[in-house]
Design brief:
256 residues, alpha/beta, three-stranded antiparallel sheet
């Protein structure tokens, strides 16, 4: 990756479906999107798992649309009565649903006469929405306010998301990370030091991750930075701050 590559984008992820919250299905989207984005130098800012409840969906989509981040939304764009995402996206944006001619043609091309009267409902999209191609069964997703609405099925959602990233978001310089292991000081003792360093390097995020094990050798606090900024300068400042307080540190275990 060239040093001139742009910095990565942060994305939101919304997974929609009662079946995730009830445990009927296990969510697979969070780890998949984390890896998919990281491979291109991007990252996840947050992830929500939401039920198939129209009022809640509309409220949360309105909030995320106002946030300004690009968001992947998986689930609820089908034609059954419990699929509310299309209507909620329109309501959140303050627009109406309308039958999208290209989506209609794709659905009719896929199902023929059996597209009517129910499957064609998947062509009712928020006014002005653009389509996302579906290489699996040709039933498209859609994009509205930089929210990329995809099916809940991973085998469809993931290649569709790959297309979105490949065509809409240039690959970025990869995020980097470095850390030190502090073994002889509790995390509470490190708080003043962390407050001093927090925000000192705007292009990096300072983190603290305590590890607690039965064996005292397995107890330590991982202190470090991650992001696209000057990692060497940040780690030098961290070492200086630890040295100034006489706090011993070392490299993180290889398992990290």
């Amino acid at each position: 990756m060239s040093d001139t590559a742009p910095a990565g984008r942060r994305f939101g992820l919304i997974v929609i479906g009662d079946e995730i919250l009830t445990g009927q299905r296990r969510d697979k989207h969070l780890p998949a999107f984390k890896d998919m984005l990281a491979a291109r130098g991007h990252g996840l800012a947050w992830c929500w798992i939401l039920p198939d409840e129209p009022e809640l969906l509309t409220r949360q989509l309105a909030a995320s649309m106002a946030d300004g981040l690009p968001v992947f939304c998986c689930g609820g764009i089908g034609a059954t009565p419990d699929d509310h995402t299309r209507a909620c996206a329109a309501a959140a944006a303050g627009i109406v649903l309308e039958r999208h001619p290209q989506a209609l043609a794709l659905i009719e091309g896929r199902f023929g006469a059996e597209a009517h009267p129910h499957r064609v409902l998947m062509a009712d999209l928020p006014a002005g929405a653009q389509l996302i191609p579906n290489p699996v069964n040709q039933i498209p997703g859609f994009v509205l306010r930089e929210h990329w609405f995809l099916p809940g099925f991973p085998r469809m959602a993931w290649p569709m998301a790959e297309w979105v990233l490949a065509t809409q978001y240039p690959a970025a310089a990869p995020s980097r990370e470095a850390a030190l292991a502090v073994r002889d000081a509790p995390e509470s003792q490190l708080i003043p030091l962390m407050r001093k360093l927090d925000g000192a390097f705007p292009d990096l995020k300072h983190f603290s991750l305590p590890h607690v094990g039965d064996d005292p050798q397995d107890r330590y606090v991982l202190l470090g930075f991650r992001g696209h900024g000057d990692l060497a300068a940040a780690m030098a400042a961290l070492r200086d701050a630890l040295d100034a307080q006489g706090i011993a540190y070392g490299p993180p275990p290889e398992t990290e």
